[in-house]
Design a protein that fits this description.
With about 450 residues, the chain is of the alpha/beta class. Helices cover about 40% and strands about 15% of the residues. The chain has helices spanning about 5-20, 25-35, 90-100, 110-125, 135-150, 205-210, 235-245, 265-270, 295-305, 325-335, 340-365, 390-395, 395-410, 430-445, and strands at about 55-60, 65, 70-75, 125-130, 155, 170, 180, 195-200, 215-220, 250-255, 275-280, 290-295, 370-375, 375-380, 410-415, 420. The strands form four sheets. A seven-stranded mixed β-sheet has the order 4-12-11-10-9-5-8, sandwiched between helices. Strands 1-2-3-15 form a four-stranded mixed β-sheet. The structure holds pyridoxal-5'-phosphate.
């Protein structure tokens, strides 16, 4: 339905508009080209719309201002890293107070026990360890799972994303074989040797893989959130748990994104029963911090390993992991944000955002859909898919780039590599309405 000539002409206009509006970002981007690879401190930052990245100046609550003095509604929120909203006073104060008293000693700090107890209370697993990032946490858990079960492989769902975890950068090829996913750069091994990929919501494929007896753990998000949002079928999680138990496979639930459904994530909300639980990004209020929890049974099996003298070269942990600053940030975040009252504000806003987008989709009879998951929502250019491959088939880079740039030029930041909006407790109905109007206008311009 989209005329590509119209799309390209509109995109070119938006590009000019972007360049004209961001002279200061343009200068900084040029300077950064000299000594930063691709002109950015981290290569993903090249994925923003526009011919160069917008350099931000200040971010507060649900908004930020760029170096050209332009204001934005931030629906990206650091791709969940700042789901609490930017610049939380409680976190800033805790960081300042802790930084003055020392950051890294490799000793536990006074906040450690509080954080462990709060993680246990929220997420229902009794024993916890810290990590710097969700990637780290997933890596550590995969090692533990192989160690405990003595099995060589992990199972992930097709088109999942669990961070820069080598084993999980895998996908299915047309013949149903597990292969390195596109973009898996300098892969250290063929993921077919470490990983089995099955389509999300495909219980028969799942059972066939588990029945080989090779699978140490299933690493899963409650819903796929990194290829649009793909919801689990009714009863999928109950079967996933039943089958993993039946075949002696551990279940790792990664709630790094799905914490958007409530204070205890989907695990609490949907009654999941993981053996390991992974959470990263938002629990530090923007500071790098992550954690992983485990059942008492798992902890009992791991304790003798952890106590051994070689634990420092076990492949788990890191010198700065669990540092006092990160633990203080987690305490400040979990005591002042991500609470019931925060979700009570965020979720209705996500419902309104979804309704606004759906209204435009329906009005024009577009074959697109919009999916809400708690405080997050995302539109995708196909009807609701049941698995990642169906969602991946509908990726439209050209259309994505246009929609993002159109929104950015009108003061709205969407998450790159997604068409996703995440709500914070600081967003307002006016922010949501602004998006509804901008989205409707983009579609109107496209359809002429
Ligand atoms: C579900 C999930 N797990 C883990 C990660 C990795 O998080 P990080 O990049 O902070 O390590 C991501 C990142 O997007 C994610 O979406």
């Amino acid at each position: 339905m989209i005329d590509r000539t119209v799309l390209r002409a509109l995109h070119a206009e938006e590009e000019q508009r972007f360049i004209a509006a961001h002279p200061r970002s343009a200068v900084l981007a040029k300077e950064a080209q000299a000594n930063l690879l691709c002109g950015v401190p981290m290569a993903w930052m090249t994925r923003w719309p526009g011919s160069f990245p917008v350099f931000f100046d200040t971010a507060q609550g649900a908004h930020f201002t760029d170096v050209d003095g332009l204001g934005y509604i931030d629906f990206c929120l650091g791709d969940t890293g700042a789901m609490t909203g930017h610049g939380l006073v409680q976190v800033a104060e805790a960081l300042y107070a802790q930084a003055k008293r020392g950051i890294t000693t490799m000793l536990p700090s006074v906040d450690a026990a509080w954080v462990g107890a709060e993680l246990a209370r929220r997420f229902g697993l009794p024993l916890w360890q810290m990590a710097m990032t969700a990637t780290d946490a997933n890596r550590f858990v995969l090692r533990f799972a192989r160690h405990i079960t003595g099995r060589p492989k992990v199972l992930v769902f097709d088109w999942c994303y669990h961070g820069t975890v080598d084993e999980a950068l895998a996908t299915l090829d047309a013949g149903g074989n597990t292969v390195n996913r596109p973009g898996n750069l300098g892969a250290p091994f063929d993921t077919g040797s470490t990983t089995v990929v099955v389509p999300f919501n495909d219980l028969a494929a799942l059972e066939a893989a588990l029945a080989t007896g090779e699978i140490a753990c299933v690493l899963a998000e409650p819903a796929l959130t990194n290829i649009g949002i793909v919801m689990p079928d009714e009863g999928f999680h109950a079967e996933l748990r039943r089958l993993t138990r039946a075949y002696g496979t551990l279940l790792v639930i990664d709630e790094t994104h799905t914490i958007c459904v409530g204070p205890g994530g989907a695990t609490a909300q949907w009654g999941l029963e993981p053996d390991f639980f992974v959470i990263g990004k938002t629990i530090g209020g923007g500071m790098p911090a992550a954690a992983y929890g485990m059942t008492a049974e798992i902890a009992e099996q791991l304790a003798p390993t952890i106590d051994k003298s070689a634990v420092d070269v076990s492949g788990v942990g890191g010198t700065l992991t669990g540092n006092a600053l990160a633990v203080a940030a987690v305490r400040a975040t979990l005591s002042s944000a991500l609470r019931d009252e925060d979700f009570a504000h965020m979720i209705p806003l996500a419902t309104a955002w979804t309704a606004g987008v759906r209204d435009t989709i329906d009005r024009h009879g577009l074959p697109w859909h919009v999916q809400q998951l708690g405080g997050r929502a995302e539109y995708w250019f196909c009807p609701p898919p049941r698995d990642g491959a169906a969602a991946a088939a509908a990726v439209d880079d050209e259309l994505d780039a246009f929609m993002h740039l159109w929104a950015l030029n009108r003061g709205i930041l969407l998450t790159p590599f997604h068409n996703m909006a995440l709500m914070s407790p600081h967003h307002t109905s006016a922010d949501v309405e602004a998006h509804t109007e901008v989205f409707a206008a983009a579609v109107q311009a496209l359809l002429g």
